[in-house]
C-alpha cells in the first residue's frame, strides 16, 4: 500500500459523518505528511543513522554503553516497573504505542545514560513496523541529540501512574509484583516487603539520574558554537511550519 493510495483514500472518505470524523481524517493525513517528513531526513543525510544531527551531541554519552544497564533495559529488568512492563510487552508483541516508545527511549538515554545508537539498534530489531527513516530521527529526538527539539525527560514512575492507573498493564507483564499494593506498584522498592520480591532493585535513582542528565545536556547547550550548528540543523531538517510560542519550546522535564 503506497502512501499515495493512503492519501487518496483519506481524501475520498465520506465527509458526512460529523466534525469528529473530519478532524480524524485531517489528523490521519497530517500523520502521513509527517511520515514523509521524517523519512526525508534520513534520505537527505544518511549519516544520521550513526552520527548525531547536532555534532556537538555526538559524544554526549559514552559510545560504548554500560553493558549491565543496557542488558537490564533490553530485558525489562531495570527495577523501574512501567519501563520494564513496556519492554517485556514489546519483546512479546513487537509493538508499543508512540508515547511508550518515547518513554522507553528517553529513560534509556537520560536516566540510564545509554548511547542512542546502541539502544536504537535494540528497538530496531524489536519493532515489527521498523522504518529506518522514521526510527533514527525519532531515536535522536527522544535522546536530545538533534539540538533543535524540545528535551523531554520522562519520569517513569509518574508515567506508570498516569498511563496505567489501575496497574493492569504493569501486573500483566511483571507478575512478580502481584503482591505489591496498588499505591506502591510503580515504586516497589518503597514497599516493606520489597526484599522478598523476585524483582530487581532499580538500577538508578530516578530523581538523581534526571538531575545529572539535565545538567549534562545544559552544559553541552552552553558550549561555544552550539547555536551556529543548531542553525545548520534547522536549515536542513526542521519543519517549515510556523514555530510555536516560546513558552511551548522550553525544555520539558520530568513529564
Tags for this entry?
DNA Cyclobutane Dipyrimidine Photolyase, subunit A, domain 3
Secondary-structure element string: HHHHHHHEHHHHE
- What is the share of helical residues? 40-55%
Spatial ordering of strands, largest sheet: 1-2
Structural class computed from helices and strand pairing? mainly alpha
Task: Write a brief structural summary.
Helix content is 54%, strand content 2%.
Explain this structure to me?
The chain is mostly helical. The protein has 2 domains: 3-44; 55-154 and 205-253, DNA Cyclobutane Dipyrimidine Photolyase, subunit A, domain 3. The chain contains 11 helices and 2 strands, in the order αααααααβααααβ. It has helices at residues 3-12, 19-44, 67-75, 81-93, 98-111, 116-126, 132-143, 156-163, 168-173, 206-221, 226-237; strands at 152-153, 252-253. The protein has a two-stranded parallel ribbon with strand order 1-2. Helix 2 (19-44) crosses helix 7 (132-143) and helix 6 packs across helix 7. The longest helix is centred in the first third of the chain and has 26 residues, at 19-44. The protein is globular. The two termini are 36 Å apart.
Q: What is the strand and helix layout of this fold?
A:
Layout: H1 3-12, H2 19-44, H3 67-75, H4 81-93, H5 98-111, H6 116-126, H7 132-143, E1 152-153, H8 156-163, H9 168-173, H10 206-221, H11 226-237, E2 252-253
Parallel strand pairs: 1-2
Amino acid at each position: 500500500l503506497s502512501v499515495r493510495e493512503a492519501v487518496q483514500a483519506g481524501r475520498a472518505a465520506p465527509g458526512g459523518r460529523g466534525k469528529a470524523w473530519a478532524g480524524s481524517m485531517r489528523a490521519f493525513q497530517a500523520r502521513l505528511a509527517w511520515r514523509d517528513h521524517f523519512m526525508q531526513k534520513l534520505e537527505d543525510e544518511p549519516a544520521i543513522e550513526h552520527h548525531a544531527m547536532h555534532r556537538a551531541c555526538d559524544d554526549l554519552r559514552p559510545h560504548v554503553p554500560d553493558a549491565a544497564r543496557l542488558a537490564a533495559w533490553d530485558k525489562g529488568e531495570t527495577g523501574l516497573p512501567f519501563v520494564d512492563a513496556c519492554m517485556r510487552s514489546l519483546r512479546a508483541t513487537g509493538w508499543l504505542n508512540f508515547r511508550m516508545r518515547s518513554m522507553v527511549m528517553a529513560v534509556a538515554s537520560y536516566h540510564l545514560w545509554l548511547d542512542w545508537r546502541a539502544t536504537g539498534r535494540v528497538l530496531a530489531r524489536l519493532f515489527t513496523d521498523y522504518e529506518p527513516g522514521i526510527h533514527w530521527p525519532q531515536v535522536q529526538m527522544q535522546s536530545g541529540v538533534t539540538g533543535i527539539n524540545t528535551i523531554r525527560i520522562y519520569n517513569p514512575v509518574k508515567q506508570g501512574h498516569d498511563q496505567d492507573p489501575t496497574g493492569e498493564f504493569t501486573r500483566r507483564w511483571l507478575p512478580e509484583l502481584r503482591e505489591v499494593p496498588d499505591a506502591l506498584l510503580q515504586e516497589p522498592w518503597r514497599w516493606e516487603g520489597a526484599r522478598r520480591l523476585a524483582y530487581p532493585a532499580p538500577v538508578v535513582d530516578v530523581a538523581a539520574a534526571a538531575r545529572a542528565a539535565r545538567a549534562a545536556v545544559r552544559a553541552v547547550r552552553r558550549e561555544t558554537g552550539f547555536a551556529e550548528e543548531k542553525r545548520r540543523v534547522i536549515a536542513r531538517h526542521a519543519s517549515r511550519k510556523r514555530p510555536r510560542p516560546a513558552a511551548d519550546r522550553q525544555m520539558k522535564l520530568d513529564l
